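General statements about sequence and structure are easier to judge against a single worked case. No coordinates are needed to read the tokens, only the vocabulary itself. The sequence in question and its structure tokens are set out directly beneath this paragraph.
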Amino acid sequence: MPHSPPDLDLGQCDREPIHLLGGIQPHGVLVAFHPETLRIEVVSGNAEPLLGQPPSALRGQSITAVLDEAALRRVRAQSLIGPVAVQAGGRACSALLHASDGLQVLELEPLTEAMAQADEAALSAIHALVSPLGQVRGASSLLQRAADGVRALIGFDRVMVYRFHADWHGEVVAESLAEGVESFMGLHYPASDIPVQARALYRRNPLRLIADVQARPVGMVPPTLPGTGQPLDLSGAALRSVSEIHLEYLRNMGVGASFSVSLLKDGELWGLMACHHHAPRLVSAARRQACEVLARMLALQLGAEERGADATAHARRATLLARLVSGLGEGTSLPAALKANGALLMELTGATGVALLLGESLELEQGEQPVLLGRTPSREEVLALASRLAEMPGASTTVHTERLETLHPPLAGRADVAAGLLSVRLDPQAPRFVFWFRPEVARTVAWAGNPNKPARPEPGHTRLHPRASFEAWREEVRGASVPWSSADVEAAESFQGALVGVVLRHAVELSRVSRALARSNAELESFSGTVGHDLREPLRGIQQYTSFFLEDHGASLANDSREQLQAVGWLARRAQSLLEDLFEYSRLGRIELAWHEVDMHALVEEALAVVSPRLVEGKVEVRQPRRLPRVACDDVRIRQVWENLLSNAAKYQAQTPHWVELGYFGPGEERTGAAARHDAPYVFFVKDPGIGIASRFHEAIFDMFRRLHPVQAYGGGTGAGLAIARRLVRLHGGELWVDSSPGQGATFYFTLGRGPA
């Protein structure tokens, strides 16, 4: 039963040793000899018709039996330049020479009189083609002119310019056709059509002629080298025989002869000039060399065109970057400046959305919120993506992809805003990133045959056969953005450097402000201590003297005079309490929390012990349905929170029975109503059946010194307890809030952060 396409091992094509096929094409003869002794070691099996001696007779002789000494010197001297016209076996030949496996490999191709005359005109023909090529502007025009020029030189039916994409699949971007020949313009070919080792040979040897796809290869004598047991490496040979898979591929296309010229730009394989003819056709070495000269000129012109376009784009982006950096220096904060310059930031890379993560943590409760500009995924999705990139082993500073779903599958459904991602990391020690997003661009790709079936198996055998159909097969490509160019990546990395510089300048300014603030705080602390002392002493004096006076003369005073003197003492005590609470509240902004794991149940027991006199006085029952958990916090400060909440719960109760309930909601437990207002692992609460609080006062009660009742009602107090409690909770990265209504009691909830950053 034939294998389905996914079962095909296309790696067979990549592993095929096409440089060690052990044969040559029959339109020439190959002789390999020792470079010093000139002894012939290897001869192609078809040597006798041209050289007059069979391979067995030639082996062991000097190479001068094939070429005279003068011709040999010329060939050796000009081997790097190109083919040399020589006489061999009494016939005119073109000779090529290269080194392989410690031998010098001589290739001889017989020339007909017509070919020799055509070669003499090749040089003038190439001059006629190259001169106008330098005047052409625009990549499309260059490629078309080059295709027309090559077809004029070699007379093939079809000449295509075939460009490789990033994934090594190819696309026909220009072509020149004889009349009546089918066009392949715009067709794409899967990467498996030109496997890895074939691309390596195209880089090494830019010219490849297959003169007759039906011809049988000629073997070497001997087939393997005595020293290695391997066939002679023919990677550099123009006559090298052809893989049977590739020959079958060409025959399936209806091709009789093939010729290709590599297009190398900056030393890398950019594409090919692929030429097809319906029948066998020889192209002399001189004509092939002329095509190579044309291809090199084309590559130079393409490089110049790209460098010109790059220079223009670079100048434009440099201007954008300068404006952006200038804009980031303005504004009250970096996030505000980034928001104000969002359009420039997106234009810098051609993105439609940008996300900037500038905090030290990805936790929503603790970290700085991401700055989202333009069309982006949600805040939570951006944070999840940042977490994924931060955890990638060996992740580079810059990551870019046109298919984000392959890198981060959870965003597969967000291709409308984030099909493509360009990311730069600002800090290797913290998850600080800049993300640029591009949406999906749906497009149709026309393939030369089904790219999902690049080969077919031979029933009962492991050998693969290339596909037989090259009819246009259209594929709808979804989920991919416009690819990020090298200029886009360079612009992003330039912004990364500029932003780091801006952050450093902000850090320097922040450091200066912090030092000034530290000095101011120290001065304020000193001033507060002085003022506190200066205010406390008179208040204590007033309390003492009123107390002494009442003890000594209270009995002799009239009732209204005694009450007035008692009021003076009460006012002094209240003023001192207000002063103590005010100083306590002001100190909270300067304290350092001592985080560690705390048994919350034991901590509440300590708080209950502190407020027990009020609980006993008010006959308040304490209800604890279950033991409280262990959590991370500053136990001293959170005990103070519990004391304030318990004291309030005991204080504001009118109807009996009096009770207060302590509890919590843990991870994964259902939370309803006000308990679900903030998402945190633990939500603690203190509940009472007291007088309740109207909704319009739910925030006002957390203001400093804010009381909703007369000063001496419900046991008095300064109105600072809830303000202090909320500030302590927020210092922990948590929140404190109330759920209540008049006559229905009150429940105070609070959460804690996840620990120090």
Q: What stands out?
A: The chain has five domains: 24-111, 119-215+239-316+444-477, 329-442+479-484, 513-588, 596-751. Residues 165 and 719 are 72 Å apart (CA to CA). The longest strand covers residues 91-100.
